[in-house]
Each structure stands twice: as structure tokens, then as C-alpha cells.
Amino acid sequence: MLNQLTDSLNFNATALTLRSERQRLIASNIANADTPGYTARDFNFSDALSQATGRTSSAQTPLGGGARLKMTASQGGHMGLNGVSGQAAGARPELNYASAAQTNLDNNTVDMDRERASFADNTVRYEATLRFINGQVRTLNTAITGQ
After folding, report:
1. pTM for the whole thing?
2. Rounded Cα–Cα distance for residues 118 and 129 (Å)
3. Which residues 6+ apart lie within 8 Å of 3 measured at CB?
4. How many CB atoms lie within 10 A of CB 89?
5. Mean pLDDT calculated for residue range 40-62
6. Phi/psi zone of residue 107: left (φ > 0), alpha (ψ -120 to 50 degrees), beta?
7. SS3 assignment for the chain
8. The pLDDT value given to residue 77
């Protein structure tokens, strides 16, 4: 019983951490909108959440058939995705590069309209996750106190 309660809270805490990381990436993209040669970065939230919680994703990949190629390391200290060591690789999402919506002379791939929309969407979802956690804690508190 206690395991189910902590699993639910852990899931939402992981989602909140990933939302925070995505917000940081989007803010970094916006801050570098005028940097020549900067390539915007982002990650697929649902894939990152599935990876972080150990649940499998049914999303199709460019390889087809739902198969995913995983990086393997023979030693725990080997570098994994995004330059993170093998032990900490599961804590960080796989970052993707954004393709340019239109060509620029300075080779910057930041599309401010896309970034603003992503920032607003992620902010709303971050707030929703906070409300879910708040509701869970309130429900637990009510169950414990019996009111």
C-alpha cells in the first residue's frame, strides 16, 4: 500500500524535474536566439518520462517497428548520451537538435515563435504537475488525520 503511494509521488516528482529541465532548455534557446551558429535543443518529454520511470514507450522510431537503439557501455564510467557517465545517464533526457524552420544567414536554428509556444505550454504543464502533487499530498494528509 505504501509502495503505491510513493510510486505515484515519485512519478509526479520525476515529471516535475523533467518539466524543469525542459524549461531550462527552452529558456537557453530563447537567450541564444541571436547567437550565430547556435542550434536549438529540446527533448521529447513523453520518451524522457518513460525512460526515467523505467516504463517502455510504444512510440515509433525512424528505424521502424518501435525498436530503439541503446548505447551500451562495458564499464560504469563510460560516457553515455549527452556526455553523461553511464551511472547517471538515466537521470537526464536524450537531447535533440531542432531543425531550422527557415534558413538564416547566421545558421541559428532558434524559431522564436516555436520557442515561445513551447515555453508557455511547458509552463502550464509544470503548474498542472504541481497541482497534482499538491492534491496528492492534501489527500494523504486528509487520510492520515481522518478529517
Report:
1. 0.69
2. 16
3. none
4. 19
5. 76
6. left
7. CHHHHHHHHHHHHHHHHHHHHHHHHHHHHHHCCCCCCCCCEECCHHHHHHHHHCCCCCCCCCCCCCCCCCCCCCCCCCECHHHCECCCHHHCCCCEECCCCCCCCCCCCCCHHHHHHHHHHHHHHHHHHHHHHHHHHHHHHHHHHCC
8. 62
Measured distance CA(145)–CA(147) in Å, rounded: 6
Q: What pLDDT sits at residue 97?
A: 81
- Is the pLDDT at 64 greater than 50? The verdict is no
Residue 108's region, left for phi above 0, alpha for psi from -120 to 50, else beta, is: beta
Q: Which residue in 83, 87, 81 sits closest to 68, CA to CA?
A: 81
For the range 52-55, what are the long-range contacts, defined as Cβ-Cβ under 8 Å and sequence gap of 24 or more?
A: 52/14, 52/17, 52/18, 52/90, 52/91, 52/93, 53/10, 53/11, 53/14
Q: What is the mean pLDDT of residues 53-61?
A: 59
Reply yes or no on whether the pLDDT at 117 is more than 50: yes
